[in-house]
Write a structure and sequence with these properties.
Layout lengths: L7 E3 L2 E3 L3 E3 L16 H9 L5 E7 L17 H16 L4 E5 L18 E2 L8 E3 L4 E3 L4 E2 L5 H17 L4 E6 L4 H6 L14 H4 L1 H14 L4 E5 L13 H12 L6 E5 L5 H11 L4 E4 L12 H4 L5 E4 L1 H5 L3 H6 L30
Helix pairs in contact: 1-2, 3-6, 7-8
Length: about 350
Amino acid sequence: MTTPFAPVALRGRQLANRIAMAPMTRSRAFGPGLSPTESTVEYYAQRAGAGLIVTEGIQPSVTGQGYPDTPGLHSDEQVAAWRAVTDAVHARGGTIFAQLMHSGRIGHPVIFPDGRSSVAPSAVAPAGQLYTGKGMLDFVEPRALPAEEIPAVIGEFVHSARNAVAAGFDGVELHGANGYLIQQFLASNTNLRTDEWGGSVENRIRFAVEVTRAVAEAVGGERTAIRLSPTNAYNDIAETDAHEVYPALVRELEPLGLAYLHITETNEGAREVTLAVREQYRGTLVLNPATEGPTDHRALPLIEDGIADILAFGALFLANPDLPERLRTAGPYNAPDPASFFGGGDQGYIDYPALSRV
């Protein structure tokens, strides 16, 4: 039987265990030019006991930013700052992938230094408001990407992926989930296009496929992964045909030889799509499962049953930097402090008690 704490090979790279730290937005890029600081170094190094760390979302370009104080990976100073993070994680024996996140229509002109508009497949504003650093503001209509600009946006992902390798990351995870740009192309309520990038399922998956293919060609399939969230309604996404979209997408991704495919479940209905993907996808599947309450040791049988190869844990990793060991002993767990999740000054981490001190 496969155990969650046994080493596992990830496209030739040996992971210490099958426990992953899920990507979590932190909004603490207080360094020059939206780069990480020493507290970010400490935050990730503390959690190097995970078999795999996936960073917070990192914008591949200025226009890709969706929230205040989120880090980028498109300038030389950002690359240099991230190198300190990867060096610290590697010094403790960890593996770390950079999550590349273009937020698409989730953003606001006040976030950008020049007041530019966010971009999206179509000029459809999401419902709701966004925290901008100047308070909560209504979302505004994004600028629809002309077809001739789409290759340049794909190029931003490629440039950022190359920067990630230069910064010492073991690979990159493309953020195709949670209602950001890649998922905006997938969903029929955000992609109203009638050209080759919209309309049919085949056309709506094209952007996700082309971005992933371009990045894999640039840095290697073994360094490339993608995160998906089928049926996720976050950020005003509606996926009425998820059971068609995601199997079709996975069929196109399969030949690329990716490091892994990461599925995040946000509701009970997502498990049906997860099982369909698990049946057809022959590579490594990372799962951030939907659970009642915090995802803890009670989710480990998903590995033992073969539904997932690696399990990703989010909030519990914030409060428990030594989470793999706590999962092994079925707790005890420190309770996450929601007030510490985003922003809150220049402290990038909290010194939660280690297991030996609880």
